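Q: I'm a student working through a structural biology exercise. My instructor gave each of us a protein and asked us to get a predicted structure, then write a short paragraph describing it. Mine is 4'-phosphopantetheine phosphatase. I'm not confident about reading structure output yet, so if you can add a plain explanation after the tokens, that would really help. Here is the sequence I was given:
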Amino acid sequence: MAECGRVDSHTMDKSITLPPDEIFRNLENAKRFAIDIGGSLTKLAYYSTVKHKVAKVRSFDHSTKEAASDKLYEISVQEEVTARLHFIKFENAYIETCLDFIKDHLVNTETKVIKATGGGAHKFKVLIERKLGLKVDKEDEMSCLIKGCNFVLKNIPHEAFVYAKHADSEFRFQTTDPDIFPYLLVNIGSGVSIAKVESEDKFERIGGSSIGGGTFWGLGALLTKTKRFDELLQLASKGQHSSVDMLVKDIYGGSYGYLGLTGDLIASSFGKSATADKEFSKEDMAKSLLHMISNDIGQLACLYARLHNLSRVYFGGFFIRGHPLTMHTITYSINFFTKGEVQALFLRHEGYLGAIGAFLKGAEEDNPNQYSWGENYAGSSGLMSVSPDMYPMQRARSGTFDMLEMDRLDRQLVNLPLLQEPSSYIPDTVDLTEDAPAREYWLFCFEDALDGVVKRAVASQPDMPEAAVRAEKFRQKYRHKLQTLRYQPFAYGSLTVRSLLDTREHCLNEFNFPDPYSKIKERENDVALKYYQKVVKSLEELSWEDRQFALVRGVLAGNVFDWGAKAVSDVLESDPEFGFEQAKRQLEDNSGVDIILGVMPLVRELLSRGTEVVLASNSGPALNDVTNGELQILTERIAAMDPVIQSGLRDDRLTLVQNGSSSPCLDLSRLDKALAMVVRERKTDLVIIEGMGRAIHTNYFATLSCESLKLAVIKNSWLADRLGGKLFSVVFKYEVPAGKPSQEAAVLTP
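A: Happy to help. First, here is the predicted structure for 4'-phosphopantetheine phosphatase. I'll explain a few features afterward.
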């Protein structure tokens, strides 16, 4: 977000206080453009390729001299190129300045055409072609809006929300159904267009109205002499519509019980202005006008939703623009006319829909819809409240640049086929947006841990002298994100421990720290491998029942080793000799160690029984969790010393799969498609979810259509108190759905 001052000069540094590359990022690698120009806002979209660092592991051939150091594997930081979508929103007043900046920094010469949509595309066509030297190719506005809407609903969790003005959390984010169709899109611009969307390529404009945002603006200007739309809304926010509107109680002296009409219901908009011999304030007239327009649009939307049997109604367009007042009046109208049967749904990125759709139309040769995309929190402004008295960090509506960045993911993400109710699945256990005490604690916790993260980031790159400078930039950026989330916790959807962790990972990647815990994991894995055979031998000497208890305690003991948990990292820093047996003793009875000495012996036991095992691990690094690349090497080494693991791999009874995640937590609605296919093909009937991030912060309440086991050690004293336990207490949650026969195939997610 960058604040702008109004200037006539075309020099960028005078109109934008943040460095320009914080807004128009990576322009030198931009390949194609699209633009959506409305009555007052311009939305620019472009595609770029981004170079970033990734941590790679490579196994040593231990039969050669290459392995003289006896290292388990080699860690190298390599450069990869990925695709990124950039979306920037700014006032039309700055369009010429921005076009000049783009022209001066655009290196790629292959781009010949810019896709354009919106009412202003014709007005600014000559300017765009002259400034950028690109041919403007105009696209249909409604089809762009719908294409953009489909894209954000499919790719951005918590995109849709219900607005509740008087609730503890004004934004209540919705779980997106895997099947987003059908839905009703009500676009409120100058007028109103209503479209029924049935599939990716099938939609129909089924109605509309000439009474829309232009009506509010035009009549408002005549009534109040106020020419700016946002100023008109500011007036309305301070007004009392009952001074102008005739209410039911003004006619009947109270409610009209026979018809079920309350006394405060509007009987006639502006009804008092015809008879009252007085002047009405601008604020009161603006408020009355807003209610009149909103009620008309709300009733129209409800009628079309009922006529076409649609329960999902999304609102967008210039009239909405994220204003709390307009969202509240629309919500009230929908609730009244449907008696709560239909909810008014709004979108975090509704302002970008046209630009996204226009871009997608120009990028069809690359088929962006075949990939999954994820919001890059490090480069996105997030949803901000614009209520004038909502938060001290609220932004001014005029002169603001908003940014949204979407990164193309390496693999397509889908639902876990074993989710019992995918449409109602909520990954996160606690919504910090609504739980103020929990929010304050976790924000403090993440800020308090920042010094340790910076220290480990620098230590992970000892041969790079500039690492300390980059780490300091990371600190500043992430701290700013935390401060923003303190005042606007809804910025990236529901605020959760998972989203705080993900935001931190995005910021680390932004400054080329792909795996700050790589050295720690390598050391832990190397030590743990030396103890593996000893642990297996001690387990084999136990009776069957004692062995089952020991296996579970081993998994839980391994789970104690978590450098991301402050209580644990404090112990590990102060006592380097703290080991596996000490960890088992820490467990309340009333990475490396985790996977090798905890999970792998359990895998071995399951294989010995004839069970097929699918071992799913992270695709990318997160804290000290094992990645799929590391797990492949570790399993090879274990198989070389353990015939049970070796035969499991050889006979395809042990399968290692990426889960598509780069987070310590786990969203079962966004898993690698390959994992979902294996789960389905193997007819998996037991899912074991291990770890505090995956089984406590997320999925604690997840219901599956098969047996499940969630186990973790509580490594946070505050959370332990919340759950009624003590630090290092154990969660062991076994759930069995009714009527499911066992088929002896298990999925483990360490």
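A: Here are two points you could use in your paragraph. The chain has a mean pLDDT of 86. The two ends are 38 Å apart (CA to CA). It's a good idea to check both against the output above yourself.
Q: Great, thank you!
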